[in-house]
Design a protein that fits this description.
- The structure holds 2 protein chains of 2 kinds.
- Chain A has 3 helices and 7 strands, in the order H-E-E-H-E-E-E-E-H-E.
- Chain A is an alpha/beta fold.
- In chain A, 39% of the residues are buried.
- Chain B has 2 domains: 7-39, no CATH class; 47-391, Cytochrome-c3 Hydrogenase, chain B, CATH 1.10.645.
- Chain B has a 3-stranded antiparallel beta sheet. In chain B, strands 6-7-8 form a 3-stranded antiparallel beta sheet. In chain B, strands 4-5 form a two-stranded antiparallel ribbon.
- In chain B, helix 3 (71-86) packs antiparallel against helix 4 (94-123), helix 4 runs antiparallel to helix 16 (373-383) and helix 5 (126-147) runs antiparallel to helix 6 (169-191).
- The longest helix of chain B is centred in the N-terminal third of the chain and has 30 residues, at 94-123.
- The radius of gyration of chain B is 22 Å and the shape is globular.
- In chain B, 51% of the residues are buried.
- The model of chain B has no long low-confidence stretch (mean pLDDT 89).
- Classes of the chains: A alpha/beta, B mainly alpha.
- Chain A binds chain B through residues 23-24, 26, 28, 50-54, 56, 58-59, 70, 72, 76, 79, 81, 83, 102-104, 106-108, 115, 128-132, 139-140, 144, 146, and chain B through 40-41, 44, 46, 48-50, 52-53, 84-85, 87, 213-216, 227, 229, 234-235, 323-326, 328, 335, 337, 339, 341, 349-350, 352, 354, 358-359, 362, 391-392.
Chain lengths: 159, 392
């Protein structure tokens, strides 16, 4: 079922689909970020993926493009899952919001901005969500240390 | 210019009925809530970041600290995800699978008891709180006998269980579960027919099926809006397909429906526990995958292979194939999922937790806007949120 969905995506969007990956029975479709809203709307309206389970970013530091935004979709009718990924370059960490397709994306995208530093265009509420508003940096990026002498609570306390 | 039409107040983060460090900024028009904005993050510990720096075995104790009212479910979701990543899902021994289901359902009882206790207490029904915590204490004692800890159990392992059940515990669990229907009847006797309880929750915090799906609500909150979806039945894991249980659905959409739904789920949990106890047969509790599963103490001290495997797994960890998996399980609060990205090293490249409470909380403004301020307390209770899971 997920594989069929991937084929239908390819038929409909052609060049937008960059890659299809099968691993441990899970299907992942990589699409261009420019068409992410159209792809998601098509998956929801035409293929029945009415539930957005999760949305997050992954930092592949050292690779180009550096970031992947990952969407986990679920079809409540047929009980199938599908994973959509959209590459985002380090030079332009922006992607369109899908909160118009699924309202639940609102907080998930806020979290992805907060922790991974990916900006969502046209987001209705682009604030940080877990870290304080005045926090600097995005903790889940790979170049952000888990702890160290330059960070709290060790700052200015180590010789 | 200041707005004289409405008044903005803070509820939390130190407020007894916000179930932890949840802060709500409420815009009030008299007693009517016009706008509610949740502010979270006070309990953020960076568990996803920390797990990128730990081996797969070392992450397990962190998962206890997500939804600390249902630690076994978090353990279960995590170990299932790692097992899928390794491709050893079908090698888990029967006994381990049954014990996992048994404890997952016992945990569901435990979590729902805390929900009912706190929900009722928030609304002013104090007696139920005492009774629910009495039963919960039993489950905590069982937890302690199994894992040594009352809350952060850290009991399941990649490949099976950390230890077998202590002798005589099966009877204790069965005796306890036999008393549960009577206890649930007591809670219902105190609440269901109570006029104050009915007035406080009937028609409060309504959310339609369409809105609930759109907002990503899962678990009993979704099923009480009439959506027939339970991962235990629809994407069975750990052998749930072999159990006979009903998925409780209610189309009331309000707090009353969610109350009924969870109470019936407690009966179903008891049913599953009885079936699991019937299925429980002696046998191995760990899969035979020496490069992944920690050898027994016996093997570690008596055989050179055991010693080497133990040393390698502790000092280096195991290396799954590069790839990514997502596994979701039906936590008492909703769907808890683990998305693991592996680059072939002994540590996950990225671990993303799909927290049920975090996403259910997003529905709160929708449920309270336009209703009375006192209903906010009822809605927080009925959402059954845990801040440890929201903030991670």
């Amino acid at each position: 079922m997920s594989v069929q969905a991937a084929d239908k995506l390819k038929d409909k969007f052609g060049d937008t689909v960059l890659d299809t990956i099968e691993f441990r029975g899970e299907t992942t479709v990589v699409v261009k970020k420019e068409d992410i809203v159209a792809v998601c709307a098509f998956l929801k309206e035409e293929l029945g993926f009415n539930f957005l389970t999760d949305l997050c970013g992954v930092d592949y530091m050292g690779q180009d493009p550096r970031f992947m935004v990952v969407y986990h979709l679920y079809n409540i009718g047929t009980h199938t899952r599908l994973r959509i990924k959209a590459p985002v370059e380090e030079s332009d960490t922006r992607i369109d919001t899908v909160s118009g397709v699924w309202t639940t994306a609102n907080w998930m995208e806020r979290e992805t901005w907060d922790l991974m530093g990916i900006t969502f265009n046209n987001h209705p509420d682009p604030r940080r969500i877990l870290m304080p508003d005045d926090w600097e940096g995005h903790p889940l990026r790979k170049d952000y240390p888990v702890q160290g002498p330059d960070r709290e609570p060790y700052q200015d306390r180590l010789e | 210019m200041a707005n004289f039409e409405t008044m903005t107040i803070n509820m939390g983060p130190q407020h007894p009925s916000t179930h932890g460090v949840l802060r709500l900024v409420l815009e009030l028009d008299g007693e009517i809530v016009r706008k509610a904005t949740p502010h979270i993050g006070y309990l953020h510990r960076g568990i996803e970041k920390l797990s990128e720096h730990r081996t797969y075995h070392q992450i397990l104790p962190l998962t206890d600290r997500l939804d600390y009212l249902a630690p076994m479910h978090n353990n279960l979701g995590y170990v299932l995800a790692v097992e899928k990543l390794l491709g050893i899902t079908d090698q888990i021994p029967e006994r381990a699978q049954v014990v996992r289901v048994l404890l997952a359902e016992l945990t569901r009882l435990k979590s729902h008891l805390v929900w009912l206790a706190c929900h009722a207490l928030d609304i002013g029904a104090m007696t139920v709180f005492i009774y629910c915590f009495r039963e919960r204490e039993h489950i905590m004692n069982i937890y302690e006998k199994i894992s040594g800890a009352r809350m952060t159990s850290n009991y399941f392992r990649v490949g099976g269980l950390s230890a077998d059940l202590p002798a005589g515990l099966e009877k204790e669990i069965r005796d306890f579960v036999n008393t549960m229907p009577g206890h649930i009847a007591t809670y219902e006797g105190l609440l269901t027919g109570n006029k104050i309880w009915q007035k406080r929750i009937m028609g409060v915090g309504e959310i339609s099926a369409e809105d609930a799906i759109d907002l990503g609500v899962t678990g009993p909150c979704l099923r009480a809006s009439g959506v027939d979806w339970d991962l235990r039945r629809d994407q069975p894991y750990s052998g749930y397909e072999d159990y006979d249980f009903n998925v409780i659905v209610d189309d009331g959409c309000d707090t009353w429906a969610r109350y009924q739904c969870r109470l019936k789920e407690m009966h179903e949990a008891c049913k599953i526990i009885h079936q699991a106890l019937d299925k429980l047969k002696p046998g191995p509790i760990l899969a035979d995958v020496p490069k992944v599963v920690l050898p027994s103490k016996q093997d570690t001290v008596n055989s050179i292979e055991g010693l080497i495997h133990h040393f390698k797994i502790i000092s280096e960890g195991f290396k799954p194939d590069a790839g990514e998996v997502y596994v979701g399980v039906e936590n008492p609060k909703g769907e808890v999922g683990f998305y693991l990205v592996s680059d072939g090293s002994p540590r996950p490249y990225r671990m993303k937790i799909r927290p049920a409470s975090f996403i259910n909380l997003q529905a709160l403004p929708k449920m309270v806007e336009g209703s009375m301020i006192a209903d906010v307390v009822a809605v927080i209770g009925t959402l059954d949120i845990v801040l440890g899971e929201i903030d991670r």
